[in-house]
Every structure is written in C-alpha cells, then in structure tokens.
Amino acid sequence: DLPTPASPIFPLLIGPNQLAVTLSRTLLERGWHVQAIRPPTVPRGTARLRITVTASHDTDQIEAFADDLQELVPAIASLR
Questions:
Q1: Region 71-79 average pLDDT
Q2: CA distance 27 to 49
Q3: In Å, how far are 20, 30, 31, 35, 62 from 25, measured between CA atoms?
Q4: Cα 2 → chain centroid
Q5: What digits encode the pLDDT tens for the residues 15-54?
Q6: What is the pTM for the complete model shown?
Q7: With contact defined as beta carbons under 8 Å apart, do 50 and 35 qualify?
Q8: What is the side-by-side order of every strand in the sheet holding 35-37?
Q9: Which of 14, 28, 40, 65 maximizes the CB count within 10 A of its CB?
Q10: In this structure, what DSSP letter does residue 58 have?
Q11: Three-state SS at 67
C-alpha cells in the first residue's frame, strides 16, 4: 500500500550529477522524457530525476517505464 501522492511529480533521488544526466539521456532514447535536476536547483550530491505522471499515461506505459528504470538504474550505476 502506497500513500496517495500529493503531486503528479515524483522526484527519484539519484545522487551524482553525471549519473542523473546519463539516466535522463538513456530514458529519452527509449522514449521517456524525464529531466535530470541538478545543483543549483537541488543541493549538491542530490541530483534526481523528475518523473511526472499524468492522466494520459495508461497502466501499460507506467509499467513499461518502471521496467526500464529497474533495468537502467543498476546498469548505469555500475559504470561509475
């Protein structure tokens, strides 16, 4: 059971700037427009992905995005 979100924006904390940028670019190559948010917008060392879910996203799209995240985050993090 997850709490009801207060916003359609979900920040996913990544940490290093370059890792967040690489994830953002790789997701875009797969068709997902997810922005990397870095300092000075957020504190140093807390770069994140800005994930926005809207009513136009269906369950299959959300699940496909989650699958891509589960695949890419560990793969790209291992490159550091």
A1: 80
A2: 10
A3: 9, 9, 10, 9, 18
A4: 18
A5: 999 999 999 999 999 999 999 999 999 999 999 999 999 9
A6: 0.83
A7: yes
A8: 9-15, 47-52, 35-37
A9: 14
A10: -
A11: helix
Dihedral sign, Cα of residue 27, residue 56, residue 7, residue 66: negative
Nearest to 72 by CA among 55, 56, 57, 51: 51
* CA pair distance 7, 4, nearest whole angstrom: 9
Amino acid type, 68: D
> Which residue intervals of 1-80 are DSSP H helices?
17-29, 59-77
Could you give the CA distance from residue 11 to residue 14 in angstroms, rounded to a whole number? 9
Q: Calculate the alpha carbon distances from 4 to 7, 10, 50, 63 in Å.
A: 9, 12, 18, 18
